Amino acid sequence: MAPRSEPQPALGQAIRRLRKERELSQEELGHRAEIHPTWISHIESGRANPAWGTVRRIARVFEVRLSEVVLLAESIADDDKAKDDEPQPQGPS
Fold this sequence. Notes:
By secondary structure, this protein is mostly helical.
């Protein structure tokens, strides 16, 4: 299987959710994970696709397993897909 190079927005949303639950700024998360805060911003906004080692360092800051971050990202992606699959309301004819 070829590596995915396009950003994974659900992963960034999961990281943002976990960061906010812990009341951390992007700067504080970056400092603790030894990642530049700008990179945290790019990950959270879906503009960057981090390496697994980066996600692992972020997970350690949150004191969760890497698999928990992945499961949350999958849940968010599933929710987003379900919203996309819902029929769109029709306007007045």
